[in-house]
Amino acid sequence: MKNSFTPLAVKVKPSGRKKLISKSKRMQPTEKDELMLSVCQSMLLGEITTGGALKKLRIQMLSINQDQYARMVGVTRKIISEIEGDKSKASASVLNQVLRGVGLSVMVMPRDKYLQEQLIQTEKQVLDNLIAIKS
Q1: CB 55 within 8 A of CB 65
Q2: Of 55, 68, 79, 118, which one is least surrounded by beta carbons within 10 A?
Q3: Three-state SS across 7-29?
């Protein structure tokens, strides 16, 4: 089955760097947030890999193919393909560069599920306290 992707328009930034812009219907910020949270939760639960998350966000959020995305983030299409296929040996720096295009970054997490839960719970308490202070 062949995927069809919407072509991109090119906009030149004041710095002279080209920015690729999808001509497809843009997702609303709330839709992007919901998709991002859903993908991140799936990653935390081990239901999807980093490569799978990148592919899902690239296609659903940006509606672009690997070559277009590679040009957007400044790497080769081969690197994107390897990451999405979970066959990459890319450094954390390259992985961050690639993930940044879909709003993600590399994060160190304990492998132990109990410790992951403890970490998430602690972060939630910190965020709740910050929200309470700002209110």
Answers
A1: no
A2: 118
A3: CEEEEECCCCCEEEEECCCCCCH
Residues 74 and 88 in one domain: yes
- What's the number of domains the chain is made of? 2
Query: Which tens digit of pLDDT belongs to each residue from 45-74?
Result: 889 999 999 999 999 999 999 999 999 999
Assign residue 89 the CATH number of its domain.
1.10.260
Q: Answer for the pair 67, 81: CB distance below 8 angstroms, yes or no.
A: no
The predicted-structure confidence for 26-50, as pLDDT tens digits, reads as follows: 788 899 999 999 999 899 888 999 9
CB 57 within 8 A of CB 103: yes
Secondary structure of residue 121 in the 3-state scheme: helix
76 and 115 assigned to the same domain: no
* Cβ–Cβ < 8 Å for 61, 32: yes
Residue closest to 45 by CA, chosen among 88, 105, 109, 127: 109
